[in-house]
Predict the structure of N-carbamoyl-L-amino acid amidohydrolase.
Amino acid sequence: MAAPAANMTINADRLWDSLMEMAKIGPGVAGGNNRQTLTDADGEGRALFQRWCEEAGCTMGLDTMGNMFARREGTDPDALPVYVGSHLDTQPTGGKYDGVLGVLGGLELIRTLNDLDIKTKHPIVVTNWTNEEGTRFAPAMLSSGVFAGVHEQDWAYAREDAEGKSFGDELVRIGWKGDEEVGARKMHAFFELHIEQGPILEAEGVDVGVVTHGQGLSWTQVTVTGKDAHTGSTPMPMRKNAGLAMARILEKVEEIALSHAPHAVGAAGHIDVYPNSRNVIPGKAVFTVDFRSPELAVIRDMEARLKAAAEEICTHMGLEVDFEKVGGFDPVDFDEGCVAAIRNAAERLGYSHRNIISGAGHDACWINRVAPTAMVMCPCVDGLSHNEAEEISKDWAKAGADVLFHAVVETAEIVE
Ligand code: HGY
Ligand code: MN
Ligand code: MN
């Protein structure tokens, strides 16, 4: 297949302006974003993305999970489209680039094709996947998971946020529930551009990450039940302190992850104690343990050791403990052909590059089950993400988007 000429590159200023424009929607309190899924801000961001796509000549499809599909026609309408995209939803204290760079990098690809008046055989479709973050409605990558047949739609609709609102109701409320059957679309290939969200590329001075694999993820929600009691008048030996049990279990989480150094990681980012009153011993603690590793056997070992340690701690303290698997996926091997398209693009464009395993989960990890899929990454400052101070440079954004452009357009086959 003919590859784009090395001088065919995206318009970095236009991409950057679009990123900054989108960042105005659902602003955080410290320069980042709080545009959580299915909030009014998410709806506003979707509307802006749709307007931009239509201005670029695309038609917009919308499925029953709110996944958005902006289609640029190819010369062969029957050819399976090449999909490219990521997510517009953010963490509550998220950055301006996590997910957004991949969606707007896809839009910039369309805008550049228009500028250069390039036709491709395969249509190209830019996607925004609903609820990649999984912060408001667990699990992460919910809608790409339904699309890939990993989750049932009814189960997804029933997922509730901390206020008891359901995904299905909120999708209807913001007016972004489509009619298209989720998962009915067939793809020639899928590409996702994403910031690394880790320190490797910046530390090595490398412009582009060629993502060959994605590490696996496990989310176990642990509920420890003790007994509410007065913090002042209850003798220490009589206490059933769920907060203390949680602290001891979280120490074990750190120990278990470090026992599989250097690749395994573990932490709890979601922690609730009840009744969360200054002078009440917590009678209940609910927290989600996030374990990750490139090796499935290591993930399974960490899950098993968490349960054994938690049960031993709670039995010793006279408390109850329950576990619920609320998210997870096995380690991912991306498609070698798509990975090669990304590597060749970086070579052709003269960008420094290295193979990398994705530390974070992405929609591509699920889409990889239903279509040849690969990712391209750009560095981020200090490897920081899921923090409002998340930052990238315009040059890094350009390098990633240029490589994305070349990989997608080569796969979509330029028509001379
Ligand atoms: O959890 C993840 O890895 C992704 O950022 N949702
Ligand atoms: Mn992301
Ligand atoms: Mn994220």
In short: The pocket of (2S)-amino(hydroxy)ethanoic acid (ligand 1) is lined by residues 132-134, 140, 360-361 (CB under 6 Å). The first strand starts at residue 59 and ends at 62. The CA atoms of residues 55 and 390 lie 29 Å apart.
